[in-house]
Please model this.
Amino acid sequence: MALERWPGLVAAYDIEIRAAAPALRDLVPARRRSLADELPRAQRILVPGARRTLRIANGLAEFVRDHLLRAGPLTLSVHNLGEADHTDAELVTVLRRRLAPELLRIEEGPSAPGAGPLPADFDRFRDEGFHHAMAESGLEALRGLTYEDDPAGWEHLLQRVAGALEAVEREDEARELYDRARRESTDPKRRATAAYATAMILVRHHDPARRDPEQALAWVNEAITITSLLPDRRERAFHLGFDLNGKALVEVRRDRRAAAAELVRQAIDLAETDLADEHPIHRLVLYANRGQLLAMAGRHEAALADYTRAIEADPGYPDYYLDRGNLLHKLGRLAEALADYESVMRLSPPFPEAYYNRAELRFVSGDHEGARADLDHTLDLDPSFTPAYVNRSGLHAAAGDYARARQDVEQGLRLAPRDPHLLCVLGQIELAESRYPEARMAFDTALELDPELVAAWASRAELAFERGDRSAALTDLTHALKLEETAELLFNRSVVYRAAGLPEQARQDLVRAAELAPGDEDVGRALAELREVRPPASRTDDEGASRSGPPEESLPRGPR
Model:
């Protein structure tokens, strides 16, 4: 019915519908296409990440919502939910979270006995990023298949299953499969692949404590040694370039970025020399990776050029718009960054990071309501997106809504109990509510976890100032300024200097603040006041209290 009555609605969610219901592919044309759609499967080297299923589920939920708003409410009966694959269960969870029950009522029916599982479609699982389905059905298939039955098929399936296990953070099981492949196979390419994949587990493990770049280096060098010897020039260029690119990540983890950049350059040279008419995705990935390394090195224009080259090679692939937008944002090119973030929104199923990043742009431009709406949407899409709780709680706190700010902080801390940014915002809330010991504890803990968190130093300085400890306030603000010199921090320190009877130091801070923010009215007004005020001689009032300098002032809030 939707296709007949509202074809535009169906077209808006073509990726999600085609992914979830392959039987409808002939009826739902692919409107949003990328380069991979036109290439042989062997050249589609970009496998979607594990979070893509959540994006597809959100897109389907929005399609169902918009359809039911036109067609009327619906009751959905779900059977065997306890036996459902992770991806199907995730869809039901998203539907329940995002659609009001008066629009879509979901009823769990009784288990249907005798239901056989759907046949495994490993190509589809891989292409769509259905990693849980690939892992479970693939492991089951491997139980019934031996290396001797079909060496090439066994190795191919094992590689896919191990990659899926790694994607869903079951790295130990993936490592066991790679070890099993090494015990069975002597094929050079397969052994190189297993060595490369083992290295990637060791540098990308979801638990940072279990990463081991030095051991990863040994494994990736094993892969490079093998692929360097492959006799076919094109095959060698592709596999060796892949391994050199992987070694670049290892070198980044070892904090050897120049070495990483050289490795990516070698991989690009191989691709451009020997793969000029094939593997275009491999080449664009290399350019994007070099762009990332150039950005790390501060070579921003060169990095933008590489990101742009990758995007122009595949304008339908959304991820590199996000990377380029982040760099443009950092450079203050906000309109261009906004265009890139909104390209992600247009090209992809709902992408929480794009809305989160646009919220930051809107906040910087003064659109606090728009920023909060984007953060709301980010958390609708992914309630586990911890940074969004940080920023939204900060917006609530800035608006004086400390109850809602505290709710967001507490929810964020349930997900990430040792997140220093959340603890910093918690301290700001406690300070605003005059709960000084609790505020100090929150700031201290945040700084123990992240000694370079400028906002925590500035906020702890505010706490010290309000409690009358000007020396501690000056110490913390000075430390914050060593980490990041901003007009706001300089202005705040000038307030403390004035309160401490040190007008010359206050003037110096204000002069520097005026250089950083020439149009800041508060800075200009404070400088004018200092020019008018002459330091009074110390005197004793009627009660014998000695005073000097300007009267007590309140310290503006530090950066959020």
About this structure: The longest helix spans residues 233-253. The chain is about 65% helix and 0% strand. Residues 420 and 446 are 4 Å apart (CA to CA). Residues 535-560 have pLDDT under 50 and may be disordered.
